[in-house]
Amino acid sequence: MSTTTDTDVAPATVRAIVAGHGSFATGIISAVDQITGRGSSFLAMSNSGLCLDDIQGTLARAVDDTGARVIFTDLPAGSCTMAVRRMIRARPGVLLVTGINLSLLLDFAMQDAVDPVVAVNAALERGRASMAVYGG
């Protein structure tokens, strides 16, 4: 598992960036790594202590450094999502997936040689299907 709050050099195996509040990204990537051993497929980024412009700049450098074409964020209206939405206007081909959960990230991690668009769509379907309510 890799983490960054600046321009850390990431391993070439990074397929996606996970960004969110506090230690959300490192936590969910840790869970993926514990279950699949594929946590190194992701680069974690926290928005802690960063303004919107700093988040956008950090994410842009992370995309450039890793070649990742997918960015996962925690909240649809959170600062990481807003920064990515601004950044991808000038970066066609970079996908944003927001409101993620562990099932979604696990599914993405297990799809090795799949086109990012196909992998994201399959993972999104898995993530949505994993949510349930019992009792009541």
TrEMBL record:
Q: Which UniProt keywords apply?
A: Transferase
GO BP field: phosphoenolpyruvate-dependent sugar phosphotransferase system
Presence of keyword Transferase: yes
Q: Does the keyword Transmembrane helix apply?
A: no
Q: Which residues form the signal peptide?
A: none
Among the GO molecular function terms of this UniProt record, one is: transferase activity
**In this protein, which residues make up the domain named PTS EIIA type-4?**
13-131
Matches recorded under PROSITE patterns: PTS_EIIA_TYPE_4
Q: What Pfam families would the database entry show?
A: EIIA-man
Domain of life of the organism in this record? Bacteria
Q: Which InterPro entries match?
A: PTS_EIIA_man-typ (IPR004701), PTS_EIIA_man-typ_sf (IPR036662)
Q: Which GO terms describe its cellular component?
A: membrane
Identification of the protein by name: PTS EIIA type-4 domain-containing protein
